[in-house]
Amino acid sequence: MKEIELSDLDRRLLERLATDARVSNREIAREFGLTEGAIRLRLKRLIDEKAIQVAAVTNIDHVPDSVIAYLWIDVDATYPLAGVLDALVAQPEITYVASLVGRADILAITWVRSATHLADYLHNTIDPIPGIGRIRYELTHRMIKHDYRLTTITR
Amino acid sequence: MKRQLDEQDEAIIAVLREDGRIAIRELAQKVGLTEATVRARIRRLETSGSIRIVAKRDLGAMGYPYTALVGIRIRGRTIDEVGQDLLAIPEVISILSVIGRNDLEIQVVARDMATLNGLLTETILQIDGIVGVESALAMNIVKYDHPWGRFE
Questions:
Q1: β-pair type (B130-144, A94-101)
Q2: Rounded Cα gap, residues B55 and A151, in angstroms
Q3: Which alpha helices (H) appear in A20-149, and where do they start and end?
């Protein structure tokens, strides 16, 4: 995705949403001294151009028994990578999928309840995906930093 | 304070993960609750610290198209000490301590390849206690939905 130049108004909108992302267009318009239509149009443009996304984030400290696992996946050379990527993206438990150079062909990040759950999940759900070769995994023990205000908008 | 989420909370959160600015009326219709109930539940989820509704920015649109996924091995210092040094590098957007052959998995973003190279081969390697790094470059990120965070 290409860098998108933000106008001063875009920046002010982002700052305002950082405080309260559900503030109404009418309220923002009142604060900025602009029309509601102008605010709606700017926000729509930012969202349509995939510069921003407004979404709920769950506090990981409030989720009991959650383990984040990194899955480093090698794909059989005879299978097209795209098919394996699509199958991983379709898994609701998988929150991040990227094709790589180095370390493995694909990194998938998944959220499981326990190490036992991960073993079952890998065996029953991921291993049967055609083209999946070797999987190495790492269990996350602690989140020191994760900037949830950054993303890659793919939808 | 922690509170258990019930099915109705989960249903509301699922919709808000797709569109955090959805109108209350539309959200109420989707989950089959009244507008007043939905409004009260969102407020309670936010004040109890269970969820935050945030504006997320696209890394590419911000001018950071490069991401490296870096595994780090540490000797002679604690994971937290090295973690603190990594926190000082703004391009390091995620730091997780892991169990496996690495001690930390971090994500590093950059505006261009030269900067990424400098971060991986100089800045990070200069941190005391880091004895090994292995890096991968993300070619194509096809899903990035991390629905969780640690609220400071």
A1: antiparallel
A2: 10
A3: 25-32, 36-48, 81-89, 115-121
Report chain A's terminal Cα–Cα distance, integer Å: 13
Write out chain A residues lying below 8 Å of B42, CB-based: 22
Contact, B87 vs B104, CB < 8 A?
no
| B20 contacts A56? CB cut-off 8 A | yes
Residue at B74: amino acid letter: I
- Name which of A101, A98, A97, A86 is nearest A131 in CA terms: A86
B131, B74 Cβ separation under 8 angstroms: yes
Q: Give the 3-state secondary structure of residue B41.
A: helix
B33-64 pLDDT, tens digit each: 999 999 999 999 999 999 999 999 999 999 99
For A:52-81, CB contacts with B below 8 A are: 52-63, 66, 68, 70
Q: Give me B115's structure tokens.
A: 């900067």
pLDDT at B111: 96
Q: Do A139 and B98 touch (CB under 8 A)?
A: yes
Structure tokens at B86: 């990594």
The proportion of chain A whose per-residue pLDDT surpasses 90, expressed as a percent, equals 66
C-alpha A110/C-alpha B104 separation (Å) is 17
Q: What is the pLDDT of residues A111-132, one digit of tens each?
A: 888 888 899 999 999 999 999 9
